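In response to reviewer comment 3 from the previous cycle, which asked for concrete evidence that the modeling workflow produces usable outputs, we include below a single protein chain processed end to end. The sequence was submitted unchanged, and the resulting structure tokens are shown without manual editing.
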Amino acid sequence: MKLLKVLSLIIMATLVVACGDDEENSSSYSSNTNKNIERYAGLEFPHVRSGNSTVVTHSTSQFGTTYSLEWDHKLKAQRWTCYFFTKENKTKSWYRNNWKSGVNWDGKYWTADPFQKDPKIPYAEQPNVTGEFSGSSYPDKGFTYFQRGHMCASEDRVNSMDANGQTFYMTNMFPQGELFNGKLWSNMESFVRDDWGRKMTGNDTLFVVKGGTIDHEDQILCRTKSGFIVPRYFFMALLLKRNGNYQAMGFWVEHINKDHSNDKLIDYAVNIRTLEEKTKSRSGMNDGIDFFCNLPDDIENAVETQDIATIKRLWNLSNR
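The workflow returned the following structure tokens.
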């Protein structure tokens, strides 16, 4: 009897260590029924759609992946952008204002922010670099013009000139109202980057997914003068891997051109399962975004269903 108890304790300890190991090893102890193909196996990737979509990854020789995005050729918009912070790429050695001093990058000489079309996506599917967003309005909802709103923020990739430049591709932009982009959305970006992304140490990794709603008409605010989608909602999904453990949360926010910079971020926080439900159509079809699908199923289910009180505590949202 004592021998059986000892064997049981040994087995349980082995399983605990395995769950604390990296995702490749932990998957051998758990099924994964909804994972992507190997090419998109990074934990930052949502489930990739087939059909009209193409996944594009931008990278640099020094730091590897800058970010990836899923581009819908029919809708002419990105569905999401995903990337990650580690201790290696969180560093700051480039400043956005450096572009204004003049610099050679990507075969061109820049004297301002280097907005340009993405060389990996057909140019005709992308908005014009200037005039398309700023020349479009939706006065009934308080939008006199739109800004070029980054999904992978410029400040999230200041580890090199090349990485920062790639954040200015038009495929990484959505039309956003000035008071939304520069206030509440900016506060959420700061939370992701400064409270968590820049604090990565050891083997910690923060996986980030950002995007706007493009798939259902009731989740589209309007379109620009040339027909490019302006999302009614924007979202962020975060997954933190620290010491072999995982925690996750999301933000879901309506695109309103008003100053909500004093709002508490916890008021926009949801768990990942709720975020996935919110991206679905009202018809109830299973057509939403499946975040963090490359986690083993048991870990995915656990982190995606945490309650708000737990999220508030784990992510230090009490004062944000």
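Confidence is low (pLDDT under 50) at residues 1-29. We consider this sufficient to address the reviewer's concern, and the full set will be provided in the supplementary archive.
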